[in-house]
Design goal:
The structure holds two protein chains of two kinds. Chain A is about 30% helix and about 15% strand. By secondary structure, chain A is of the alpha/beta class. In chain A, strands 1-6-7-8 form a four-stranded antiparallel β-sheet, with helices on one face. A four-stranded parallel β-sheet of chain A has the order 2-3-4-5. In chain A, a hairpin with a 2-residue loop joins strand 7 and strand 8. Classes of the chains: A alpha/beta, B alpha/beta. Chains A and B meet through helix 4, helix 7 and helix 8 of A and helix 2, helix 3, helix 5, helix 10 and helix 11 of B. Bound molecules: iron/sulfur cluster.
């Protein structure tokens, strides 16, 4: 995973609440068995509408998505995160994220910055007034900066550390292999067993 | 101070705790399906890793599988590739797989419980948000993403931040004709789709205790629809009666030892929840959705709301957009809404009890002209069970279609889809835009409302139906 420290880029204002993962990437795009190549599925249904914000040329190349509350609800599909990243997004800013989406983002290297609702509103206004506005998302300082706006954002300390260091979760866990084995030795024999194949 | 049920199960599974880090939790049961696993197995392969505990891992084919011609190869080549990829992966990594045609095949959240694998006090994960279903047994069960699937495959553990706890207490008794589905839809409309964010929820109270295991699964299933990390219900005699004798349930002395442990899985009297919600079951009525998220619902006796009546700006905008998408006018009585397709199935309401309830309503009646009714059992076992009871005949005689097991029209990854503008009454869990097919319009309902709606062609409850001849 690539390290994430400070990201600066232009932003896409998505004035929608409850953007569920079925909207971020509809089910028909989930049939692939690869980890990349999902950008064509991103907001596929909404993109058919020429007035949809992602179709507006002034926002081409935006890498920060600013969305309404309850972003990423619904299905656990990590494809939603991959589709956003494949399209070029590196950060999503919202006042509230669904848990699983947020977890998936942290694993895949997409930064989710949780801010107060009025910060989202001010960012929308700034970028709508001038789509070229540079939005800086500073993970070290936990800060969003754009125009004269400076606002802090929330992210849990562990995810922040992993993103800053670009660390692979599985590698960290495997370094505790002894403790896993110790735990396994104490599991009662009546615990459920599914296999073997 | 005492502990809540969720805290007890959590504590029991902590492999490693360090301040400032998430707890490393041991996972008792890892369920796998074809959509969210291929990239995880690929990750293992690339890193040269193995599946640590294939014996605690179980895979099934559900999302992509057809519900017609199930004995033929899957027609859609992309779906077929995904299913075949799962078969190859399970073979290579030694994971048990219930494939199409196997009597244990079906929706992953129906299969785990029916095998007796889902047990009280266990941790259950799956790359699927409706893993919360398994909480009905007093398990701590939650959905994960594909990176986490890979993590569990490799280590049988997951780093997890300790969630807050919430109690949802439902007092009183559900009136006749009002089901667990109505209860949970009422709850979501009350607390909002983000109301459970960050919490593990324990459902308790008289109305919950009175529910069957199937009905408890319906409630826990939809925990994710209001944002909860997981939802669980303390095990009791109903739980034990359901589990005893199941293929994978403990036997003999092991059963006795397990039961002794399970009986301690209750929230202590002096435990404190971070938040509490109280509802009265006796005031509930059949409940249906009008919008495009599960929180946008009203009683069946109500009308499509006027967006202008919402206090919050974001709710108002969401309601306006939803009405446009759904093709509905504010003020229309819900009972006047005509429905093209009725879908009975999914991990929310595709179990034997749901099929029995729907069959009882359509028995001796006929599905309305211009309406189609699709009945899709949650698993091959449920299908066989229903056929033993003659329910397939009841449905077919009424003019409904009787299908093979799978997710089917719950998400439309297989050929069972709505066409643009088509309207459904569905016993599934999500009414998102396009969820059941591009441009499709979904009303979430209980199996009873689904069955009555199939007969009248408009949203209806069994009480609206004329007596049989
Ligand atoms: S039935 Fe629907 S909600 Fe349940 S697992 Fe399948 S697709 Fe997901």
């Amino acid at each position: 995973m690539d390290k994430v420290t400070v990201h600066a880029g232009r932003a896409l204002p998505l004035r929608r609440s409850n953007v569920d993962t079925d909207q971020i990437i509809p089910a028909e795009y989930l049939k692939r068995v690869t980890r990349t190549g999902f950008e064509d599925g991103l907001f596929a249904a909404w993109r058919k509408d020429p007035s949809f914000v992602l179709n507006q040329p002034e926002y081409d190349g935006a890498s920060v998505l600013v969305a309404g509350p309850d972003f990423g609800t619904g299905s656990s599909r990590e494809h939603a995160v991959w589709a956003l990243m494949d399209h070029g997004f590196r950060v999503v800013i919202s006042a509230r994220f669904a848990d699983i989406f947020r977890g998936n983002s942290g694993k895949a290297g997409l930064l989710t910055a949780c801010v107060e609702p009025d910060v989202v509103e001010r960012l929308w206004q700034l970028v709508e007034a001038d789509p070229a506005t540079e939005v800086v998302v500073d993970l070290e300082q936990r800060e969003v900066r754009a125009g004269d706006l400076v606002a802090s954002f929330e992210i849990d300390g562990y995810t922040r550390w992993r993103l800053l260091e670009g660390l692979d979760d599985i590698g960290i866990t495997l370094s505790h292999d002894d403790q896993i084995s110790e735990y396994e030795a104490t599991r009662p024999s009546w615990k459920p067993v599914a296999g073997p194949a | 101070m005492g502990r809540t049920l969720a805290e007890k199960v959590w504590d029991e599974h902590v492999v490693r705790h360090a301040d400032g880090e998430p707890d490393l939790l041991y996972i008792d049961l890892h369920l796998v399906h074809e959509v969210t696993s291929p990239q995880a197995f690929e990750g293992l392969r690339l890193a040269g890793r193995t599946v640590r505990r294939p014996d605690l891992t179980l895979a099934t084919e559900d999302h992509n599988v057809p519900t017609l011609d199930v004995d033929k190869p899957i027609a859609d080549p992309v779906s077929r590739t995904q299913v075949e990829t799962l078969r190859r992966n399970c073979d290579e990594f030694g994971v048990r797989l219930h494939s199409l045609g196997d009597v244990e095949q079906g929706i992953v959240h129906v299969v785990g419980p029916q095998l007796g694998l889902t047990q009280p006090g266990t941790t259950v994960v799956c790359g699927d948000s409706h893993t919360s279903t398994h909480g009905a047994f007093g398990a701590l069960a939650f959905g994960i993403g594909t990176s986490e699937v890979e993590h569990v495959l490799a280590t049988q553990t997951l780093p997890q931040a300790r969630p807050k706890t919430m109690a949802v207490t439902v007092d009183g008794t559900l009136p006749d004709g009002v089901t667990a589905k109505d209860l949970v839809l009422t709850l979501i409309a009350t607390v909002g789709t983000g109301g459970g964010q960050g919490y593990v929820v324990e459902y308790r109270g008289e109305a919950i205790r009175a529910l069957s295991m199937e009905a408890r699964m319906t409630i826990c299933n939809m925990s994710i629809e209001w944002g909860a990390k997981a939802g669980l219900i303390a095990p009791d005699e109903t739980t034990l009666a359901y589990l005893e004798g199941r293929t994978r349930a403990p036997k003999g002395d092991e059963w006795d030892a397990a039961v002794t442990y399970w009986r301690g899985l209750v929230t202590d009297d002096d435990a404190e929840f971070d938040r509490e919600v109280v509802l009265d079951a006796s005031a509930m009525t059949p409940f249906v959705t009008w919008g495009t998220n599960p929180g946008q619902g009203v009683p069946l006796g109500g009308s499509v709301p006027d967006p202008a009546d919402f206090a919050e700006e974001s709710d108002r905008v969401a309601a306006e957009k939803a009405l446009v998408y759904m093709g509905l006018e504010a003020g229309t009585p819900m009972r006047e809404i005509e429905v093209d397709t009725v879908f009975v199935g999914s991990c929310t309401n595709g179990r034997i009890e749901d099929l029995r309830a729907a069959a009882e309503i359509v028995r001796g009646r006929t599905v309305a002209d211009g309406t189609r009714m699709l009945v899709v059992p949650g698993s091959a076992r449920v299908r066989l069970h229903a056929e033993d009871e003659g329910l397939d005949i009841v449905f077919k005689d009424a003019g409904a279609e009787w299908r093979g097991a799978g997710c089917s029209m719950c998400l439309g990854m297989n050929p069972d889809q709505l066409t643009p503008g088509e309207r459904s009454a569905s016993t599934s869990n999500r009414n998102f835009e396009g969820r059941q097919g591009k441009g499709g319009r979904t009303h979430l309902v209980s199996p009873l409302v689904a069955a009555a709606t199939a007969i009248t062609g408009r949203l209806a409850s069994p009480a609206d139906l004329p007596a049989r001849d």
